[in-house]
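Continuing from the previous page of notes. For each protein in this section, the sequence appears first, followed by its structure tokens. Read the first protein now.
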Amino acid sequence: MYSSKDLKKIIKKIFLKHGLKKNDALISAELIVYAEIIGASTHGVSRLKMYCDRIKKKLINPKPNIKIKHISQSISHIDADNCIGFVSANLGIKQAISNAKKSGIGMVGVKKSGHYGLSSYYIEQAVKKDYIAICFTNAPPAIAPYGSKKSLFGTNPIAFGVPVKSRIPFIFDSSMSKINRGKIRIAEKLGKSLPYGVALDKYGELTTNPKDALSGVQLPIGDHRGSGLAWMVDILCGVFTGSSHGGKVKDPFEDFSGPQNIGHLFIVFKKNLFDKGFDKQIKLNIQRVKKLPRKDPRKKIRYPGEKKYYNFKNNLKKKIKLPKKVYNELQILINT
């Protein structure tokens, strides 16, 4: 077991050994440990070997020449030069915040990037500075377009955040599939079964076997609605930013034929652009929901962001326990 501080130091050292710049290694380690602290281990240390493998195979550029094109005061376009996704996304949200300070709204598109971890991390950065934020990223094929039996769209998460004065921020972060792909991968690694009804095998039959699910199709949330939302994200992050799309994003664990070329889109804006009473109204909005009759009187109605906040608060000083397989992978990376 590791403290979050010690684990961060270890991961940073591993990334430095693989050629990342000091600050880039720190950002990457921060995001991986953040995932472990909030209980999203599917995006944590279990992915570290994958990032290192892709750096070794020169599919992630450890020393990128990132270029920012300022299209207007509000809009910027980032060419990430195939860097690790944590770094380009961190730059993207910071640039979007900077643009929003000038004009009230900031939009940043990122191309030639890779998997960037948890969307909520980037949303949090904007919300902490009192902005509303939305972000999207596309991903490797996982979801079949509605009516098809072949996967094409990624799980393509959507994240949205709003500051709530003197309260926990409202942060919604969800993939467009019933289960995120990371949970399937970690289930395969640990020899566990999937919940029933989240994936099909390559023959179109429901499966609880993670290996069969990875070679088959993940089911979208809301049937055709989830498929449509995944398509929307593919357009916004792929077509719109000039990145891979339409099933061409490479799987980071299995496809080593080239860089992923993932696209991200960040939109940040001032909360009071239209109504100066935003702070009062958002509190009222949340209070109305929380006062509704509860299905289970013993359980409070929570809004998006509360669970993550309490997980982070409760786990920050606790030791992080890694599954044996993940621990063994970490030891190999430490010692090679």
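Done with the first. The second protein uses the same format. Note its length before scrolling.
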Amino acid sequence: MHDATLSFEELRDAHVAALTGSLIDGVEHGPGGAAYVWSRTIPDPTLNFAYGVRRPDQFAWAGATALGRARTPAFLARDDAEVVALRALFEPAVLYPASWMVARPAPTSAPPGGSVSVHAAPAPPPAFERVFANLSDDAAVRTHLRRTYLPALQAARRRPGLVPLHLVLRDASGPAACASLYLRGGIAGLYNVSTRSDRQRRGLGSGVTAAALREARARGAAQVFLQCPAGGAIEALYARAGFRRVCTPSLLCTSPP
């Protein structure tokens, strides 16, 4: 189930390290190796969750820690065995199976359909925000992004050893797709892959993903990881880009988000 060089724990820790200082604000550690990841401004369970929870005392600690931060308790299970252990402690209202994928970037040609700029700074540029804030034609989603995610990205701070890069693909209409890369050592995390809602289904998301892989390779990353919902079109899109599934964790929520 695991990549030859990246275990679930390594991917989890790389994910938390990549987003700490922007979308994630910190990690609290509890009994027996349990921990709680939290975001100050974003309430979503994907950014506020406990991991390493298998026992009642760990479950109680994680629940109290979440509620103390005004968050609904959520738990990341690394595999089916942890799902079973957590189900023995509570019945989840929602379960989100995920696919954690890894690619080894290889030389690729520039994608057709637009030019790509790379912004090397903790916070993304305005062109990135124009795409990210309009990735959906649902007004509620756009409002949520503008109230929570964009302020967190704009307030991102520099962290030792982490190189943040924000990519923007432009076509004839202007900024049309975006992505973020967070490089640490020889590993890069790919996040925020988005296409403006009026420019979707034109291959621009694939184009900015290919550009991110090229940039990661150019900067010395041997592996690039990402997370997406398990199964379906999104995972298939990343598989075509060269990513393969190496872990299948699940997020168990105590109540609907």
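What the second structure shows: Helices lie at 8-19, 56-68, 80-87, 126-132, 139-154, 204-218, 232-240. Residues 139-154 form the longest helix (16 residues). We return to this in next week's lecture.
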